[in-house]
């Protein structure tokens, strides 16, 4: 059995490489002179309290995880700045319970206009005026499905999960030019 192990591993690697598998999400397409990035508070046009604060902090955390940049909370004294204008969160019911016909699964979508600008060169690196990130959730209890505040108060982690998904999407697109 042990002498077949290298053959099995080699065949597995060949199969993975043949199917087009590749590591993604690591090539950063940002000018080399950008070392310090500002992520000021986002503009919150939604009625969801703290959405701007939570999403901005999630983006800062995701940028820090990339390791190459110093991330600050303002737009002064930086090489580049990432800004966002947050629109109201939309909620769609995905599934209803059989007996009571109440929402059992829903999707929340955060929409934003996001810009990543090189301040040194006065040039836009990346922009998306209609960024959309959707996360699905299982309903807990009875929810007013049209009110994100109710969902966030009943499921404390819902806003954090949405923020992490938003941050991953924004940072990947901004740094990798997607």
């Amino acid at each position: 059995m042990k002498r077949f192990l290298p053959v099995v591993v080699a065949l597995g690697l060949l199969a993975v490489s043949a199917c087009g598998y590749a590591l993604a999400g690591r090539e950063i397409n940002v000018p080399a002179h950008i070392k310090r990035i500002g992520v000021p508070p986002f503009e919150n046009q939604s009625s969801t309290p703290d959405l701007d604060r939570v999403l901005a902090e999630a983006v800062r955390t995701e940028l820090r995880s990339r390791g190459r940049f110093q991330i600050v909370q303002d737009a002064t004294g930086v090489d580049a700045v990432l800004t966002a204008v947050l629109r109201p969160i939309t909620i769609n019911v995905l599934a209803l319970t059989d007996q009571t016909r109440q929402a059992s699964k829903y999707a929340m979508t955060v929409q934003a206009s996001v810009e990543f600008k090189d301040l040194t060169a006065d040039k836009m690196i990346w922009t998306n005026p209609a960024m959309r990130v959707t996360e699905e959730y299982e309903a807990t209890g009875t929810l007013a499905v049209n009110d994100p505040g109710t969902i966030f108060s009943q499921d404390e982690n819902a806003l954090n999960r949405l923020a992490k998904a938003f941050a991953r999407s924004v940072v990947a697109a901004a740094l990798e030019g997607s």
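The first strand starts at residue 36 and ends at 38. The longest helix spans residues 156-176.
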